[in-house]
TrEMBL record, chain A:
<keyword id="KW-0812">Transmembrane</keyword>
<feature type="region of interest" description="Disordered">
    <location>
        <begin position="1"/>
        <end position="28"/>
    </location>
</feature>
<feature type="transmembrane region" description="Helical">
    <location>
        <begin position="134"/>
        <end position="155"/>
    </location>
</feature>
<keyword id="KW-1003">Cell membrane</keyword>
<keyword id="KW-0813">Transport</keyword>
<comment type="similarity">
    <text>Belongs to the binding-protein-dependent transport system permease family.</text>
</comment>
<feature type="compositionally biased region" description="Low complexity">
    <location>
        <begin position="1"/>
        <end position="18"/>
    </location>
</feature>
<keyword id="KW-1133">Transmembrane helix</keyword>
<feature type="transmembrane region" description="Helical">
    <location>
        <begin position="267"/>
        <end position="286"/>
    </location>
</feature>
Automatic annotation (TrEMBL), chain B:
<protein>
    <submittedName>
        <fullName>ABC transporter permease</fullName>
    </submittedName>
</protein>
<feature type="domain" description="ABC transmembrane type-1">
    <location>
        <begin position="109"/>
        <end position="326"/>
    </location>
</feature>
<dbReference type="GO" id="GO:0055085">
    <property type="term" value="P:transmembrane transport"/>
</dbReference>
<dbReference type="InterPro" id="IPR000515">
    <property type="entry name" value="MetI-like"/>
</dbReference>
<feature type="transmembrane region" description="Helical">
    <location>
        <begin position="48"/>
        <end position="71"/>
    </location>
</feature>
<dbReference type="InterPro" id="IPR051393">
    <property type="entry name" value="ABC_transporter_permease"/>
</dbReference>
<dbReference type="GO" id="GO:0005886">
    <property type="term" value="C:plasma membrane"/>
</dbReference>
<keyword id="KW-0472">Membrane</keyword>
<dbReference type="InterPro" id="IPR035906">
    <property type="entry name" value="MetI-like_sf"/>
</dbReference>
Amino acid sequence: MTTTVTPPETEPAKVTKPPRLPKSARAGGQLHGGPVAYAILVVFTIVSLFPLVWTAIAASRDNQRLAQTPPPFWFGSNLFNNLEIAWKDANLGEAFLNTTLVAGISALTIVCLSTIAGFAFAKLRFRGRNAMMLIVIGTMMVPPQLSVIPLYMMVAKLDWTDQLQAVIFPSLVSAFGVFFMRQYLIQALPDEIIEAARVDGASSWRVVWHVVFPTARPAMAVLGMLMFVQTWNDFLWPFLVLTQTGSPTVQVAVAGLGRGYTPDQSLIMAGALLGTLPLLLVFAIFGKQIVGGIMQGAVKG
Amino acid sequence: MATRHDTAAPPAKEGGAAPGRPPAAGLPEKEQRRRARLSRRWQRDVRWSPYAFVSPFFLLFLAFGLFPLIYTGWASLHQVELTAPTDMDWVGLRNYTRIFDDDFFWNAAKNTLTIGIISTVPQLLMAMGIAHILNYKLRASTFYRVAMLAPYATSIAAASLVFVLLFGRDYGMINWALDFIGIDPVDWQGDKWPSQIAVSSIIIWRWTGYNALIYLAAMQAIPQDLYESAALDGANRWQQFFHVTLPSLRPTILFTVVVSTIGASQVFGEPLLFDANKGASGGAEHQFQTLGLYLYEQGWVNQHLGRASAIAWTMFLILIVIGIVNFVISRRLRASSEEFRP
């Protein structure tokens, strides 16, 4: 799967080494990292992971222990108790269901729409294609947050406040997704295969279903995961439209724990841990693919 | 990837001609009409299906991207209250003059700029360094990449709450560590610069690994022979980094600068949740109130949606200026790099 995600250009070119090349010539992908490189990487890995581990440590203590010096460095015995209270206090069961629904629908729709649009931009000729692609790239530069006020007005007018569709609809579209799939399909889908299917009499939709979707499957999986993570972690918009009553997303619920008036820090940490855990699991399992996907999306084609 | 011939087989049975061909003479009239119909359908398909493929994106983008953006501009010229978002009174540019006269706007603009600089510059520099190291041949390199991306999986909400605890004035881990090496405790939430550094550190923590991966991808796309010819010319590794790696990364660096700039102009969740008073003011003395937070305060706390729209459009115009500057710089850079290319 990963081999197909990595575009051909990024693979280190095999060079027949001329004899007695200076040592410095073998820089870049060729050079082996020394102890200094490992030391720096280990430090950065610890800095990256420490706040996450410490969330779990704090969630396993009680509030009084957290209000002492030195702060706790190892796990206490309160973890499951705190998780249970945080789960109930923040109504996390419903929040998980809501967020899974929102992120699932968004990711699925974005992946499908991005694949067919990306296919059109990558492989089909039509009038206005370049101009439209410029618009797509341009929209990647427009921050979505600048639209929250009219979106809020629209949602209020439609009477969708506090309902999940208010969160789902604005997140169904991703210019990054279109760009990502276009980059992938340019390289992964040879023109000959489309032509062959065309000669066989397949309509455009048939080509999409029987040729494009199977070819794009690895990239679709990666894009789906990226979009799932992004929607799962979205904060501002759900925070604005889902604050009045009961159906929050996980992020809104977790933030709500922190904004209570008598905050119990260990409970807040338990909530933060619960809100992060599902995605960390996804990363633990599919980390390699996600890393490959981000790197693939970064390379210009 | 094989085409499924069983399902993609042509509908025409006699002669097996592809539908694109002109109808053959000498066939029965009925068959000729059928072929002409298929051919027309075929041409319609080729001509219009690309538009069908891209239209869902553009329709959704019009409804949830472009229309709201323009409508924000329209709303910024009106007095609109949160309690009755559909009642709009034309006030011209008064919303803009009101916010420009507001000291809190300029304070928020300054804070956004400083938080943007102290979060973006170290973040991208560190990402570049890490990418350079990750580009070596290493054991367990996938592990480091995934571990460094783990903060990206953490939400703003969870990350901000954890950092509030780590940066606590009396019992936080960071002040404890400072005390350990003999430095007086810092009021990370109350004082201006410490609080801005603390908010920035949340951003740096979440995004450094992500940017490192982007740089790494670009580094791996640099052709190896560039390094070899540089080495044959006698360049050491530092010189190779500055004369081969950095110039090749220019487009990627500009891309990350633009994306980070946009992100920095939007900072909202981190300062909101970092505030001990649970308010939208960005600390008791607005010491870390960003433009995003000021927009929220005007629109949803003070309920002036019109004024909030004016803030949003001001931010948009600033971003356009940054975009144009960036475009000009990247063209200059491209032109100058082409001059030196053999």
